[in-house]
Amino acid sequence: MKRFHVHLHVDDLGKSIAFYSKLFAAEPTRVEGDYAKWMLDDPRINFAISTRGNQAGVDHLGFQVDDATELAELKARAEAADLALLDEGETTCCYARSEKHWVTDPQGIAWEHFHSLSNIPVFSEGKQDEAAAESSACCAPRAPRGKPIGIAVKSGSSCC
Question: What CATH number has the domain bearing residue 32?
């Protein structure tokens, strides 16, 4: 079963955690110094916020799936529709190890399709330091809002 995913960049993590905790009537399931996530069942959503972006607002949308078969179905659907697709395969980002790929809508909004494999203790493994992570972003060429699309564009945005 799919879970809708929304990731927002926020200016003040503490204020945003307080707001969304009241809005959802639930505390986040994960909180880090730069990140928080709610895994809600009603509505079924993976809602994440972070302070890693250049500006506040929607970073990306997506679908989190429960297994590799569902992820393959989403990938096949995107390929059949001839959508530009960036397949990252297994990667780390947002305190998780995931298998993922990306598509981008006509407005430049990135859609992440992913299957989470495990939690990790750092935002993204393989980064030497925060400066390197910020300058190289996460893993691939970026759309204007910072997410991969398969073609290089200038951006200083974050990952996931």
Answer: 3.10.180.10
Distances 139 to 68, 88, 120, 135 between C-alpha atoms, Å:
21, 8, 17, 11
Answer positive or negative: Cα dihedral of 137, 18, 26, 58.
negative
pLDDT tens figures, 84-123: 888 888 887 777 788 899 998 888 889 999 988 766 666 6
Q: 137 in helix, strand or coil?
A: coil
pLDDT, position 123: 63
Sheet holding 35-41, edge to edge: 30-32, 35-41, 44-50, 3-9, 57-64, 110-119, 96-104, 85-93
By mean pLDDT, which of 35-44, 90-99, 112-121, 146-155 is the weakest?
146-155
Comparing C-alpha atoms, which of 160, 32, 36, 46 is closest to residue 97? 160
Residue 151 within any structural domain of the chain = no
Q: How far apart are CA 90 and CA 160, in angstroms?
A: 14
Residue 7 belongs to domain spanning = 3-136
pTM confidence score: 0.71
How far out from the chain centre does Cα 101 lie?
11
Retrieve residue 118's tokens. 């495990």
Phi, psi of 86 (to 5 degrees): -110, 115
